[in-house]
Amino acid sequence: MLTWWTKRKTMIEIQRLAHEQNHERALQTIEGYLEKNPNDTNVLIEKTWIFLETKQWSKALDLANALQQTDAQHPVFMLLIGEALYGLKEYEQAISWLKKCVDASGGNLKAEYLLGLCYTAGGNFDMATAYFENLVRYDPAILNSRLLVAAESMLQEKQK
């Protein structure tokens, strides 16, 4: 049985490694931890995020779907599935999951951003613009963020 501090220390280490882009070591730490505690939802979520960051879309989707089976109404699981589907270029399915996330959470900046990207990729620029504008309503400071600048650039490029 792991103590609370051992669990917390492991999570901090995983997040530090992921932040430093040391994904291989983070995954090794996760696997070692999961050997002793295979159903730790928080660690499984971190593993899914790492799969997403490293563009291992199918692995992320498989793990996110397994997590979603434990709690069908959890908005984080919906976001993970939506982002994995976006990465797999399954835009319609991604939109469905990301909308569920936004509805279940009462708003989610990352989900709204991904919705804008999905609609851009699908050529629905009015919907894409609406979601990107929602981001600015949530947080006006986002106007200067790299994410929104990249999204605007992508939207302009697709409209040409």
Q: How confident is the prediction overall: mean pLDDT? A: 89
* Radius of gyration, CA atoms, in whole angstroms: 17 Å
Query: What are the secondary-structure elements, in order, as H or E?
Result: HHHHHHHHH
Largest sheet: none
Structure write-up:
This protein has 160 residues and is mainly α. Helices cover 79% and strands 0% of the residues. It contains nine helices and no strands. It has helices at 4-19, 23-36, 41-53, 57-70, 75-87, 91-105, 109-121, 125-138, 146-159. Helix 1 packs parallel to helix 3. The longest helix is centred in the first third of the chain and has 16 residues, at 4-19. The radius of gyration is 17 Å and the shape is elongated. 33% of the residues are buried. The model has no long low-confidence stretch (mean pLDDT 89).
Structural key phrases:
160 residues; 0% strand; mainly alpha; 9 helices; elongated
